[in-house]
Amino acid sequence: MGRRGDRARKRSQPSPRHLVTPSAFFLDAFLSAPVQSREPVRATNPPPQSADAHTAKEPESMQPRTQRQKEILEYITRFIERHGYEPSYAQIARHFGVSSKATIAKHIEALERRGLVSRHRNDGAFGLTVQREEVDVDSTCEVPLLGRIAAGAPVDATEDRETIAVPRFLLGHVRPNRVYALRVTGDSMIDEHICDGDIALIENRTEARDGEIVVALVEGARATLKRLYRFGTGVELRPANSQHAPIRLHASKVSVQGIFRGLLRPAT
Hints:
Elements: H1 2-12, E1 25-28, H2 67-83, H3 89-95, H4 101-113, E2 117-122, E3 125-130, E4 140-150, E5 155-156, E6 162-167, E7 179-185, E8 199-203, E9 213-218, E10 222-231, E11 234-238, E12 247-250, E13 254-266
Parallel strand pairs: 4-7
Antiparallel strand pairs: 1-13, 2-3, 4-6, 5-10, 7-8, 8-13, 9-10, 9-13, 10-11, 11-12
Helix pairs in contact: 2-4, 3-4
């Protein structure tokens, strides 16, 4: 059958990779989906160099061609690490003092041709994913379990410190030292499959986009897990359960303490 037969056999073979989760937990892994229309650019670190840089180099196609392309790639990576979300083309252009987003788009296209990024559609806006080294699906990391969070009416925040093991791949591009865990109480986020007794994984961040699931601190003392929406000088903390009413407050009375990144469900 020759080469055609070889290709057909390769396509028919199943992928050897599969997800392995700790036996103590069932895993519900998903990211919150912001609804705000933007021109996002997702970024991660460039592919790592060989341990012996003198004898093995990355192929030329996997390196930025110009200094400006390298600077743009590094800026996107730093922005993600600092803010936890991706910059827009306009933000990149402003950072580099460029008046036209089209100029930035040309640099991005060049990076894509060299295999450093891949463009995709995200909620109607173009986004980018910068290639990163894959995380071992079997690896785990320790994150602090700080107490409980209400998926219902706000309750007083608690911080009973202990640590739990979390599958590393669940955190995506977020560094483990930027993540903490909270035990969920209540059922107001049940339609997001966040149930009473689950453990929510939270990225430690104080900025959020509309539509993200956040840990909101209400009036400096009461914490709740809800989707955040802004309107004028107010905010709405929206549940995912028709039996619960949204919480509407002046923006000055609500502060974001973190962004929901995933879920661990203890075995029953």
